[in-house]
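Example 4.3 (complexes with small molecules)
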Amino acid sequence: MERYQLFIGGKFCDAVDGETRFTYNPATEEPIAEVPVGKKEDARRAIECARKAFDSGIWSNMSVRDRAKILYKVIERLKEKEQELATLEAMDAGATIRKTSMMDIPVGIEHFRLLVELAEKIPTYEPLPWIDFPYVSWNFVNREPIGVCAGIIPWNFPFMMTVWKVAPALVMGNTVVLKPASDTPLTALEFAKCAAEAGLPDGVLNVVIGSGSEVGEELCTNPMVDKVALTGSTETGRKVMKLCADTIKKVTLELGGKSPTIILEDADLDVAVDGALFGTFFHAGQVCESGTRCFVPSSIYDKFMEKMLERVKHIKVGDPLDYETTMGPVVSLAQYKTVTGYIELGKQEGARLLCGGKRPDGFEKGYFIEPTIFDNVSNQMRIAQEEIFGPVLAVIRYDDVDEAVRMANDSIYGLGGAVFSKDIPKAIEIAKRIRTGTVWINDYHLINALAPFGGYKQSGVGRELGPHGLLEYTQIKHIHVDLVMDRSKKFWYDYIFND
Ligand code: NAP
Ligand code: MG
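Answer. The structure with magnesium ion bound is encoded below.
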């Protein structure tokens, strides 16, 4: 069994006290690797290395082009390991090999490349209008790196989240301390190996595994950290924001969701039914933007639901390492208990269980849950308001589109959502009325590295990806150049001189 180490200051090392534990495969419940248990002291060492690397200018003063050259080498190295990473991700996170080999790893690497390319095109110099009050001056903005950026990531897309936190921060000239989720640390550590092999200077990237309360909290409170970017639950987001307040850190938060899928009467049924199922059951529903509330018009309700209950049977639950499998287990026993608890709650609240609701027959081990669909759901029920983060869909019937939009927006969350209709202008009108950061029309989940992603309301703060996401890793420096060299014209100096 492989034994992993922390990555601090360019070196692989054990936790300060040598403690280790196992990480498990949620499909078999078997241990798959031994990993260190990082402590506050390890986080501090990593932060110091990142601070030193940043302050030395070895990375922050390098041109974007030179940073990109090194990052492209990391990308090359990751590409060489693509298949190995896909297998490891499947084993550690319970993601299907079908998904990790088609999506998580290759698309993650592609996001990395697109972000580096985009950074090379984003001007760090931004002209401002000429200012002639109180006299002529030349003003411009220089975009500068923020400093030491901490990335705290969840267990649902461990490799992709590593890329989303590390790539934009590094390419914009920051240094990074990354904390993977305790349940899924392995591909982030493989990422660190690739970075080291590619010649990333020491201390520019550090990876520390450890609990949220040890390593995570140190990252949020240590005064040497300038920014924290978290992807995780809204509850953790609240804590992180509070912890970061004392040292006024910059924060970006990518949090939970309860996103709406609104089906219109004229939707193409094949696209809409499969789209609604894809929106919910992709990665067993463990996706922050999942469309877990599906609003279906009464006029097509029976036809839509009949098709949905037929199509859901084509989702194949099973061994994640089998390419035929399209849905694996949920990530951990804790998550299994949460999701099955919500299924019981849905029944108690009076929703009607149409399919699923339990561990599939024939599975003795592993945290598998069948694709589960409830209808007769009211938007006020807890299964329609709270993030379940598992394979559970709540179908809500509506009579009038305005009512559907009102219910869609009646949520503390605002991350994603979709509208299915053949009438594109009408769908765009509705998309604009949905208060979330991303709305897909006739699709779901397609996240493009060149477009911003993030949440309204309690789904987050700031944006990741795209130009907006890259600029979240910069400071705005205003430079004012006074072009007047004649003291007699500088009448404003006389605010203090009386001669
Ligand atoms: P979580 O607790 O929010 O964890 C996300 C990350 O934050 C992990 O690395 C975690 O470390 C860390 N963390 C936890 N407490 C922290 C603290 N006090 N200070 C700093 N960092 C801290 O999410 P989870 O436990 O993985 O999942 C719980 C629920 O969150 C899920 O059921 C789901 O509803 C939601 N979730 C949302 C997303 C999303 O993308 N929006 C992703 C995953 C989960 P540890 O792993 O060591 O605890
Ligand atoms: Mg695991």
